[in-house]
Amino acid sequence: MPLNEAVVRAMDIINLIAGSSRPLTLSEICKQTAIPKTTAFGIVNTLVHKNALELADDQVKSFRLGIGLLEATLAALSESDLLKAARPTLEELNGLIGETILFAVEDSGQMVFLDMLQGEAYLRATVKLGTRVEMHCSAIGKAVLAALPESELLTFLNDAPLTAKTAHTITNRAELLKDLHATRQRKYSLDAEENVDDVRCVGAPIYSRSRKVIAGVSITTHASRVDRDKLEYYGVLIHNAALKISRRMGFSEPDFYWDELMSTG
Fold first, then answer.
1. φ and ψ at 100, to 5 degrees?
2. Is the pTM of this model over 0.85?
3. Is 172 in contact with 162 (CB distance < 8 Å)?
4. Under a CB-based contact definition with an 8 Å cutoff, are residues 106 and 120 in contact?
5. What are the residue ranges spanned by the domains of the chain?
6. What CATH superfamily classification does 78-264 receive?
7. Alpha carbon of 192 to those of 146, 223, 227, 228: distances in Å?
8. pLDDT in single tens digits along all 265 residues of the chain
9. Is the Cβ–Cβ distance between 103 and 116 less than 8 Å?
10. Quick check: 160 and 109 in contact, CB under 8 A?
């Protein structure tokens, strides 16, 4: 069956913008998709009208994903087996420690937040569902990165701009690789104020029946609320929670990062 060209082009534009680290102008969209400018203008205008895209900068006329697209995605994912499997454990963990619990999946080299259970008031407004976070400076992202096969991890490190978000962000590729190897050893990742000042996190990956990493979870807290011992305790909790969710998804290996540890010694 032949594909509808207008729909294909609309999806090409959406996927291009979704994979970009910044809003794109119409000229940039045309250049990277090879869609004629008049055609692209009509598609983009329609997508904006339907809230799939939104104008990011009125002066330069750049575009980013719109809330309508994110809402549709979240609505679909809210009924998925993965979120259904994760939610009871996330609620249990949130009730136990009173901290913010986050759930995210990887998309185009970034983590997209799909669920959140709020903790203390300080962090209530810091994360919105559907927003993205860089993988190299977040616990939830580093947990997933550490679960990648070494070849995929090295490709990410070679291609991704390791942008500094705070003075603590790891921007050196060798240092980040060392940190990810340490994550594999301890079974959970750490964000030591690397994405947001005064915020610390621990994270762990979620695996599927096919032994592929499919999501990540994290505990997020104010730096003043945790010392080294408590952060280690939270690390054990997030590891156990992620493993419990992975078991519900059919994961049968004895623990996380088993294959990556064997391949790297």
1. -75, 130
2. no
3. yes
4. no
5. 5-70, 78-264
6. GAF domain (3.30.450.40)
7. 16, 8, 11, 11
8. 788 999 999 999 998 998 787 899 999 999 999 999 999 999 999 999 998 999 988 888 999 988 887 777 666 655 467 888 899 999 999 999 999 999 999 987 889 898 999 887 555 546 777 788 999 999 999 999 999 988 889 899 888 899 999 999 999 999 999 999 999 999 999 999 999 999 999 999 999 888 889 999 999 999 998 999 999 999 999 999 999 999 998 898 888 876 554 444 4
9. yes
10. yes
DSSP secondary-structure letter at 75? H
| Contact in structure between 114 and 77 (CB atoms under 8 Å) | yes
Count CB neighbours of 100 within 10 A: 23
What's the CATH architecture for 5-70?
Orthogonal Bundle (1.10)
Q: Do 5-70 and 78-264 come out as alike in CATH topology?
A: no
181/174 Cα distance (integer angstroms): 11
Q: Tokens 């959406």 belong to which residue?
A: 14
* Count of CB atoms situated within 10 Å of the CB of 234: 25
